[in-house]
Design a protein that fits this description.
single chain, globular, mainly beta, 29 strands, about 40% strand, 6-stranded antiparallel sheet
């Protein structure tokens, strides 16, 4: 079923009015180099110039990201095949950029705004890959792949912001196909949210993926894209994994690899990977033209041309553009010139799943306790004592009769807030544990409150969860913010404009 392209103009307007997605230039305040992740360190097996380019990029990214108008960096190749550090810009006239860093040439790429895609078409059972899907509280995104775990359970793989509403969902929530924007209602439930990787919105956050999985069945979701205008089923073996350890053998080999995807909005498109190890800032909430909430991502892939994706394609599986169709990445954001995607090897390893090529065995009994949510006041006055609630749910098929501990920690100040024991949980049951948080002596600013449990179960991806609460000197106000005035001021030649906003 082809997308109704006449909807796309109204979709853009809806995004701007509702205030959902745009980029922001938040960056790590530390002037020092990034510490590479193990996957990044292992990736440095390519040509020496690429390894040197990655080292230079990571060393200088924090400073580059503080330049207004810089939204990301990546390593790529110039037309001569030489490794370069690519700097992603909102416009071409950004001052203060170097021509080289540590002897590595710097190239400029105007991407415009980098947006976390989330737009939304028809209901189908089983739903093909690439079709509209979403949490009830979002617009819609794309079914990326059908994946399965070692127990034979099958899941939809897509983005966190598609299946889990960024940080606004709990394990067990219904997943609709089509997504709400495309008319999906409670009667169209196709899956149940099973696990998601939390997105860290702190200014020094280092996210590697925007991903989630939802439990479904082979009767509800197919393992292939449409046969008429899709690319068929994806391969079950990821790209460049000769030793079968689940990771790319050489990330540098991704550069200039032709790829394809099938997504809810732009259907099947072809592109090329032009950047690896990208560090980018992605906006998830926007007011008019101002970003209200952004998240930093590292170790990302860049795909061109700009028409490779559009809003609503979020969650699409990106595969090689050949007969093997090896999975490469999970699409989640972009702009008019670039697509941003997570490395599929890291995503699959995080959830301990593989791409389902069909004929999955029947599910076996599963023991799975999940930290469903952590709830705390958004803002706390320093010195106050508040209650933090941790919800624990049995999302498996088997009753849990072995007692296990649930702990809560203020990860920012490395302070334990207590441990409680859960004696047992029936399948589907939820227990709410209340912890006391005394903020006397706590540092001011964002605090990550992280909960985890000790039960050894069949799914470690949902054994922890967190929330962010702000400790302030004065505590929360009355929660009222008023935009008193918004004045647009055009330039003399009419080519640009600036805005003055009065916020009370």
């Amino acid at each position: 079923m082809r997308v109704l392209r006449s909807l796309r103009g109204s979709v853009v307007l809806a995004v701007l009015v509702a205030g959902t997605t745009l980029w922001s230039g938040c960056s790590d305040p530390d002037d020092g180099p990034f510490s590479p992740t193990p996957s990044q360190q292992a990736a440095r097996t390519g040509p020496p110039d690429i390894a040197a380019a990655i080292a230079a990029q990571e060393r200088h990214t924090p400073a580059l990201m503080r330049i207004p108008g810089v939204v990301g960096t990546a390593v790529g190749l110039n037309p001569a095949g030489q490794a370069v550090v690519r700097v992603l810009l909102t416009r071409p006239d950004i001052p203060g950029l170097p021509d080289a860093v540590d002897g590595i040439p710097v190239t400029r790429t105007v991407t415009g705004m980098l947006v976390a895609f989330s737009n939304p078409t028809t209901k189908a059972r089983p739903a093909p890959l690439g079709y509209s899907v979403g949490h009830p509280d979002i617009t819609a995104g794309t079914i990326g792949a059908r994946v399965r775990n070692g127990s034979g359970q099958v899941f939809i793989l897509s983005n966190n912001h598609v299946l889990a509403n960024s940080i606004g969902a709990t394990v067990g929530d219904p997943i609709l196909q089509p997504g709400p924007f495309d008319g999906g209602t409670a009667a169209d439930q196709v899956a149940t949210l099973f696990a998601f990787r939390a997105i860290d919105f702190a200014t020094n956050g280092r996210n590697t993926m925007d991903a989630a999985i939802a439990l479904t069945t082979t009767a509800e979701v197919d393992f292939s894209t449409p046969t008429d205008d899709g690319y068929g089923p994806p391969g079950t073996t990821i790209f460049n994994d000769g030793n079968s350890d689940g990771l790319f053998d050489n990330v540098a080999a991704l550069l200039n690899t032709p790829v394809q995807k099938f997504g809810r909005t732009t259907l099947r498109t072809e592109g090329t990977i032009t950047g690896i190890n990208a560090s980018v800032s992605i906006c998830y909430e926007v007011l008019i033209i101002f970003c209200l909430k952004s998240a930093n991502f590292v170790d990302q892939l860049l795909i061109e041309p700009g028409g490779f994706s559009d809003g609503g394609d979020s969650g699409s599986l990106i595969v090689t553009d050949d007969l093997n169709r090896n999975p490469v990445a999970l699409l989640f954001a972009g702009s008019t010139t670039q697509t941003i995607a997570n490395r599929i090897d890291l995503v699959l390893q995080h959830f301990n799943v593989t791409i389902d090529g069909g004929n999955a065995p029947p599910p076996t009994p599963v023991t799975d306790a999940a930290i469903n949510s952590v709830s705390a006041p958004a803002e706390v006055a320093a010195g106050a004592t508040v209650s933090v609630t941790v919800a624990v749910r049995n999302v498996g098929t088997e009753p849990i009769s072995t007692p296990f501990d649930v702990s809560l920690q203020d990860a920012t100040d490395a302070v334990s807030l207590g441990t409680q024991t859960v004696a047992s949980l029936a399948p589907g049951a939820v227990t709410n544990l209340s912890f006391s948080w005394n903020t006397t002596g706590a540092s001011l600013g964002d605090h990550t409150l992280a909960a985890s449990h000790t039960l050894t179960d069949d799914n470690g991806a949902n054994n922890q969860a967190s929330t962010i609460s702000v400790v302030s000197a004065t505590g929360p106000g009355d929660g009222t913010m008023h935009v008193g005035d918004l004045d647009g001021i055009p330039s003399d030649d009419g080519t640009t404009w600036s805005a003055v906003v009065e916020v009370t």
